[in-house]
Amino acid sequence: MSKILEPTPELSKQLHEKVVEDQSASSLVNRLRTKNKDLQTQSVNTYQQFWNDSANNNEESRASMYKTLTNTYYNLATDFYEYGWGESFHFARKSIGESLRESIKRHEHTLFDAARISSGMKVLDVG
């Protein structure tokens, strides 16, 4: 059985640092190619342990290590989400002639207005 790699904020930064530093890495292929290969492989192995034939492939293990399972999933999936939706994972209807980015901004402003969120307030977006 492989070692469980705990998905800490430091690990996420190491796993994604080249993508953040290289703003030209806009395509999914470039993003994946710039990954730290060892950390990426260890993250994949950690995630797969929750589903493959291993001591961690059971409901009790997944429940007790929920944070590790969830954070590892998002470390692996974030590049795909960002490729499809950009930095915002919100969905919005597009008006005629409106870009995806513009529709998401409009949608977020509508949400802020409806919730009476104003400048300087702290907001937690939990999904």
Question: Please, could you describe this protein's structure?
Answer:
The protein has 127 residues and is an all-alpha fold. The chain has six helices and no strands.
Topology (elements, then pairings):
Elements (H helix, E strand, L loop, with lengths): L8 H13 L6 H6 L3 H13 L9 H6 L1 H20 L14 H15 L13
Low-confidence runs of at least 5 consecutive residues: none
Averaging pLDDT over every residue, what do you get? Answer: 80
Profile the largest sheet.
none
Number of strands: 0
Work out the helicity level.
55-70%
- End-to-end separation in angstroms reads 33 Å
Order of helices and strands: HHHHHH
The portion of residues forming beta strands comes to: under 5%
Tally of individual helices: 6
Sum up the overall morphology in one term: globular
Tell me the structural class: mainly alpha
**Rg calculated over all Cα atoms:** 18 Å
